[in-house]
Amino acid sequence: MTKRIFSAIFTVTLSTLLVGMIILIAILMPYFEQQLATELSTELGYLSRGVSQYGEDFLSTIDPGSSRITLIRSDGTVLYDSSLDASTLENHADREEVQQTLATGTGESVRYSSTLQEKTLYRALLLPSGDVLRIACTHYSSMGIFLLLIQPILLILTFGAVLSAVISYKVSHRLTRPLNEIDLEHPQVPEDYEELTPLLRRLNHQNRQIKAQLMELGEQQERFASITENMKEGFLVLDRTGTVLSHNTSAGQLLHAEAPLMRRDMTHSPIEELNSAIRDALEGQHTETLIPLFGRMCQLFANPVYQQDQLTGTVIVLLDVTEKQERETLRREFSANVSHELKTPLTSISGIAEIMKSGLIDPNDVPHFAGKIYDESQRLIHLVGDIIKLSQLDENSIPYTAAPVDLLELAQNTRIQLENPAAKQQVTLQVEGEPVVIEGVLPVLDEMLFNLCDNAIKYNKPGGHVWVNVKRTPDGPTISVKDDGIGIPAEDHDRVFERFYRVDKSHSKAIGGTGLGLSIVKHSAAYHNARIELESAPGKGTCIRLIFPPSREMPAQSAEK
After folding, report:
1. How far is residue 504 from each of residues 13, 384, 458, measured CA to CA in Å?
2. Which of 6, 24, 153, 327 has a beta carbon 3.0–4.6 Å from 168's, enabling a disulfide?
């Protein structure tokens, strides 16, 4: 701003000076020449009277000053010249002022010297003797005067430039100081600048708009961050070079990132499948694939991002589908196992029925084969019943409501139900502990405990024992079923609760197990938010503990009502 003010002031100063000089010269030069002409005429009259009285010698007695006096005969011969030797001068008969004087008695002329930028005024008078008396005076022309004043003009301009610089600095400082002191966040009109009112009002309005937009943008960013941070899926936004612009915590966890992902170049990731998907997306191709990530299976979605038909980056979404894959595998295995388990009794029933239909069975053997059909049908009924229970537990569609359940009383009822099977197996079933009441679904808890005790009896040995213990622990209400039976190998601990999984398949078939008992236990425990602990070793027996959360425990008297 200082430069602009300086330029304006200096330009005005220079223009004013030049225009003023031009106007001054234009006005004064004619006046000056008129005065000079009058003086020459007066002086010429004085000289003519002197020559008339005293003769030609009178001219040599006076000081001409800056004027030039010349006496010329009528034929043009120069008789006298105050500046030069008359004998050296050429004939003046052709001079304009001489010709005018000889013709009219007086004459005048003006001659210019472009070289010297001078202007000479001539006045002439015819003397009684017939000679011509001429006087001349030389002065600078307008351009000559201007050139003569160049040096003073330059000095004035230099002074004007310095003065303009000082004035412009002070003026600009005075002008900008109130502007610099304006609070752009809350602009107020300075007292000296009422003209700024429209500007500051607009600025204030724009500030409000910007604040509103920033607030809205901040809210959108917070919502976006909140959404992405609460996503289980990994989320990354990359620019067109593959550099991370944004990501959520899940992405770092899935990629096992030891350092922050922000600003990292993902095109050089050690995971080749991820690199390939990113490269394809940055080339404009949509990618959807399954990739292994540190022991997990993830579904990767890579989508290119366009802005005004220009590829600006890509969005990567990583979805952990390990459990989904495992469930799909279990579903396929379950379907295959169900088909196999249903096919076996149905095939047996169909075969026996076909033999009976053909009349090839001895009438005395009919009760035996009828018993076979009954056993296989019962096995089929139990299998279908267990499948239905598992389906209900999976879908949380148990047709019962929660109520207070005394675990010790439940264990004692289970012991009564299994007295005969235990006696047949020559296994002793004991229940001990203290009354512990929890909130639960009685039929589900009953089925769960029955299956545990039933397995402990079936997979025991003659003379074996089964102990059921109910107690309170710091972790919560606990019920444990322990036996000294055949035990479970360590490599099978993680799979014994899977559907249709049998540790000893031949023994399971012999005792009529469906392979769903422990799976029902697992899902029943999950339904009650209970934790299962398993301790077992071959030949040393098995102990399974069910630990319910403390929040499920209820006062003892609740179960009595």
Report:
1. 114, 22, 12
2. 6
